[in-house]
């Protein structure tokens, strides 16, 4: 299951579990109360019958003066005794019989009933878990089918996008050699943007071979800064770091990681904001003055978004590629202040 499927499963499971378990627990509680009332009524009936004959070993009795303030024909349960008062048939106007039931026997029965209820309660919990899991998985089936259709659709898009996008970029480059119109630059930049989306989808749905390249980090980052500065002219993008420094890494993967991070830094920045890129032999830092990230623990989850913009795949792709080539990604963010992303080269 992916992140969204797990989230939906947990929510559906919780909903079914709470609903089913609550109804079952209420039913068990009502059953327990009814059993107690039935037992007490049965005990009171037996005491009433005993008060007429005063014979038997189950109950004890005592003859008392009639007290009209005392409840008659009512089972009374106290900390040390269980009894009921009845008018004495020989002298009902002046005397009454106190019939007593052994307190330990009463507690023994109640404890047995409580244990039975707890066993039923545990059985209810186990059955509810199984039913909730079954219903939750059943409700996920349509969503999983939809996700599968979407993934197949995206795979087809990846296949079909390659040729037209390559044609747009190639022809716009040829036009740029002959003309210097701003419109042609916009076409080329738009083609590059589509290429970035295409490559993101390609990363998700195709396992491409990894080859090591010798990348001039200063030149590479300068090119990416210049590219995003063209896309976001209202922002200030700066590069800080050592000159003429090279690292051994797959260039395409590094470009996907850096481009996705720079795209987020620019896309979710404030008006006239800043993006600073710092680098050395062991890391690249991208610092922005954007809106910040609220849920840092979810940013790498597939399709997770904090706003309506985007597909929610960029940082998931960053994490996927980083794990593939041995790069650690560290993110610090404050809502309303900005985000600081560090790429650590582990290999």
Automatic annotation (TrEMBL):
Residues 156-347 form the Histidine kinase domain. The chain crosses the membrane at residues 12-31, 117-140. One of its GO terms (biological process) is cellular response to phosphate starvation. It comes from Sulfuricurvum kujiense (strain ATCC BAA-921 / DSM 16994 / JCM 11577 / YK-1). This is histidine kinase. The keyword Transport does not apply. The keyword Membrane applies. It catalyses: ATP + protein L-histidine = ADP + protein N-phospho-L-histidine. Its EC number is 2.7.13.3.
């Amino acid at each position: 299951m992916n992140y969204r499927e797990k989230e939906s499963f947990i929510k559906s499971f919780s909903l079914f579990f709470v609903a089913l378990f609550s109804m079952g627990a209420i039913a068990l509680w009502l059953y327990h109360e009814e059993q107690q009332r039935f037992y007490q009524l049965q005990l009171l009936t037996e005491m009433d019958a005993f008060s007429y004959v005063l014979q038997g070993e189950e109950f004890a009795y005592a003859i008392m003066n009639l007290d009209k303030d005392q409840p008659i024909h009512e089972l009374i349960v106290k900390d040390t005794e269980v009894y009921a008062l009845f008018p004495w048939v020989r002298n009902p106007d002046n005397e009454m019989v106190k019939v007593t039931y052994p307190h330990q026997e009463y507690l023994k029965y109640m404890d047995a009933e409580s244990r039975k209820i707890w066993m039923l309660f545990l059985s209810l919990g186990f059955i509810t878990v199984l039913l909730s899991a079954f219903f939750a998985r059943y409700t996920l089936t349509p969503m999983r089918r939809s996700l599968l259709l979407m993934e197949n659709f995206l795979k087809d898009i990846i296949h079909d996008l390659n040729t037209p996008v390559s044609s747009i970029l190639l022809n716009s480059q040829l036009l740029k050699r002959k003309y210097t119109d701003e419109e042609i630059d916009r076409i080329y930049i738009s083609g590059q943007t589509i290429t970035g989306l295409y490559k993101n989808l390609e990363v998700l749905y195709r396992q491409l071979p990894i080859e090591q390249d010798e990348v001039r980090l200063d030149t590479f980052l300068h090119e990416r800064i210049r590219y995003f500065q063209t896309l976001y002219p209202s922002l200030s993008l700066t590069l800080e770091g050592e000159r003429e420094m090279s690292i051994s890494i797959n260039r395409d993967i590094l470009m996907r990681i850096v481009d996705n991070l720079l795209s987020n830094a620019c896309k979710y920045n404030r008006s006239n904001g800043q993006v600073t890129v710092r680098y050395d032999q062991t890391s690249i830092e991208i610092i922005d003055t954007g809106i910040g990230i609220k849920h840092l623990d979810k940013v790498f989850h597939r399709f997770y978004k904090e706003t309506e913009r985007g597909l929610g795949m960029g940082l998931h792709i960053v994490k996927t590629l980083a794990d593939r080539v041995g790069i650690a990604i560290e993110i610090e963010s404050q809502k309303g202040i900005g985000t600081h992303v560090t790429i650590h080269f582990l290999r």
